[in-house]
Amino acid sequence: MDTPGNSTTTPHGDAEDRPSGAILGYLACPQDAASGFLGALLITDARARPLHFAYVSPIRPTAMQRLLYGATLIEHVKIDVIAKTLMQGAAVVPTVLFVDAPDLVAVRRVVGLPTAFLVKNTEAQSGSSNISTLKYDTGANSEDQEIIGQVLAELEPWIDLVEPFTRLREAMKEALKAPPKA
Amino acid sequence: MGWRDRRRQKILYHLKASARCVRLPDIATLPVEGRRVKPRVLTFEADTDILLSGKSFQIAAERNQQLSRLQTQNHPLDTEIRFPSPWECVVRFQTPVAVPDLRLTPAVQVVAPGTLQFSPHVTRFSFLSKPREPSSLFAPAQSDRIAGGHIKRVTSPPPPPSLKEVDLEERLRWILTPPIHEVLSDPQLCLPEPPYPFQTIGIKWLYDRGFALLADEMGLGKTMQAIIAARLLYREGLIGQILVVCPKTLIPNWKTELRKWWPQVTHNISVVGSDRQWFLRLGTANVIVKIINYEALGREADWLATQRFSHDLVIIDEAQRIKSPKAQAARAVKALVAHRRWAMTGTPLENKEDDVVSIFEFLERGLLAYGDQAQKIRKAISPYMLRRCTEEVIKDFPEKIEQPLEVELDDAQREAYVQTETEGVRKLNEQGETVTVTHVFALITKLRQICNFDPSSGTSAKIDVLCEDLEEISASGRKALVFSQFVDDEFGLRRISRALKNHGPLELHGKVPPHMREAVVARFRDDPKSRVLLLNYAVGGVGLNLQAANYVYLFDRWWNPAVEDQAVKRAHRIGQTSKVFVRRFCCKDTVEERILQILRKKRLLFAHVIDEARPAESMGLTEEEIFSLFDLKVRPRKSAKKSQPVSVVVRNMDSREFENLVALTYEKQGYAVKLTGGSHDRGIDILAERAGGGGRERVVVQCKHYRGRVGRPTLQQLWGVVSDDHSITRGDLVTSGSFTSEAREFGAGKRLTLIDFDALQRLVQQFGVARFESGPLRGHGYAEDS
Fold this sequence. Notes:
Number of domains of chain A: 1
Number of domains of chain B: 4
Largest interface: A-B, 61 and 60 residues
Number of helices of chain B: 28
Oligomer: heterodimer
Order of helices and strands of chain A: EEEEHHEHEEHH
Shape of chain B: globular
CATH architecture of the largest domain in chain B: 3-Layer(aba) Sandwich
CATH superfamily of the largest domain in chain B: Tandem AAA-ATPase domain
Radius of gyration of chain A: 20 Å
Radius of gyration of chain B: 41 Å
Structural class of chain A: alpha/beta
Shape of chain A: globular
Strand content of chain B: 15-25%
CATH topology of the largest domain in chain B: Rossmann fold
Strand order of the largest sheet of chain B: 12-13-11-14-15-10-16
Distance between the termini of chain B: 134 Å
């Protein structure tokens, strides 16, 4: 018999305290004619496993807000309202933040994290190891390119870095279907 | 000023003072003719309330709703509203409006700072959990990474029905967990080889289910799927401790598989020892996987029923072991409390639908009921049962090539065979209506033994072919498995072993102690000199991974095609890289050939039953089928007609004949008897069952054809079997000799009956089975052990 009492090694091992690698943030702020502005944040570990998820209830600007914010309304709601609020309450701080739309790169100014619009590189040929399967854009924040590039280079061989957006949107849909808590 | 003028002034004043129109038409020219206002266009500030004929509507509200619409309908008095700019509203009155009815009042114009600000409502979920396994220590080098391309994209299965009932957080966790192929590609899992896509689906399927029956065909890696699914749950912190219940023979296999697929728990596995209750209660963090066999668990059935402790996950392997709900092991398994319960079996429907019902009594009590119709069962279990067949999931799996080996008996064998058959049939016919299936079964056994080896010369047509084949197999560096139902020195595996001594034969059967079996398997796998492994169906037929072999020989045939398939699957399973050649021996013009024909029909039935979940009958041969093997003019008597018992000389009987005599005695008492065929693992020779007043009576019988006295150890062995299984009414030890006083003392007060020669003689005579006579000693007579 393998006596449990004699065993001192646990599967946790010494590696428990080792750095767990990059923490990835995924932000999406879709706009829906019926629902208004939506938003959700998914934070994962380097294996794309969820650590934190947050979403906002739909925001429907009033006529007065529309009138007064005018053309700045969309950016204000997505960046200053949704993204900022979601990030403020995050349980962990991501190393980098990926967004699913070019206009969300502007979230950089409120979250203070390296931020990039991340998308599949449709021009990449399958089977080629030299061409990345991803394309990213840091907008005007060229200083973020280095760290974003590093994270992508490190993780791209192991996980599909764009795929978490799919889960994020599915989770948002599921959450909004749920009846509000009493 | 008349009342009209006063009224008009009042309205004009009101419009001027409060409406604050951006481009209000000239007040002085506001048409007020009589009591009507002609259709007219008025332009107001956007946030103005209008009261018309007692019905009010807010311009501002209308604007929000109908910004893009030019025409509004169903408004009081058919008005048309337009918004040429964000600041103005144009209202066209289609119908003359009575002036006194037109009221314009300003909307609330106070714009508080808070009104313009957004107050989003945020809901947050945290899935933070402590890492449960070492990470980078086990990560392979970049060049060795497990390419995602090995694992096809897996479509997320719909959440199990029960998930709809759980709270939002659990649902979100399910959705947000990465797709299974991503998880399995994780270098930190460090899987020794990438799972097949169907296994990936199976892992995810198990992972998502609180209770599940994985019923993949043999050889598709059920153990591996369960281990990885459990490992993923453990990593996520969803489970802490796992209890595995499996047949005793499979414990080494589980340990091997755990070492392979979950190396981190190698030192955190505990196997049941002598203190079973302590083991079952054991909940220390450094024991992650506990393994217990059915027999040991069964002994604690009553105790478990009073306990409340629980396990995070209980996995039962070879779940058909709990198909009999009253069996002790089944009661014990069902008494286990677990948050997650998985069952695994390749043959969920061995005999009848109630087998599945019994398994689901453990998985989800109340889902099924005994006696449910097949269709209802199929519908109810479909979300929780997953079954795949090899051909369906692995297109490029190494081929299994069936090669029937028809051999002609050599002259000595043929002579012995013909003589035995002729004599046997004559005797059976002589018995008339007293003939039973047991008598026929005894003849079949004798003939099958002769088909293996001639009893006098020891020659064998089968062994000649096998030796020739093995020369070639050994020369090519391949290995072979040889299955037989006989283990003995004269006709079975030990005789075969002597003939194959040049090929380093190893043996695996009931006479090999359990603790040595793992070493035998390892040696066969690793030792290039060991080219052949000899197994009997009972021990070597289930749960072993013997992919080192590419040739499987069925030296003699089993009664049940499912058992033969199990044997073949030891080599033809996941991990096999080459073709597997299955060579089933059959001696021409013998009872083997006749049995084979019946088995072919049975095989068709088996496929039908398992895959369609239809009612099944026993997979063994029926009485009618057994009688049809010979040209018998007689059939067993159906009526209770008294007949003259035959005379027998017990001391001249061999072991088989003695067993047949005992079996017949039980049959005469109204039992349905089943001979285990001599290869039963725990010494039981006969299973006898009959319906009694208090329910079904099950008796296990051990026969000892001894001249001398049976001692206490033999009784203890039988008691071990009886006490293991509460469904057994009692154990009978029948001997042609007598018992020692220690044996009688041990048996007193237990569910054991000791039947010595005198007691047997009384029974035999009482039920008219035979008449004992003393006669001259001939032949082999008494055996050391039947």
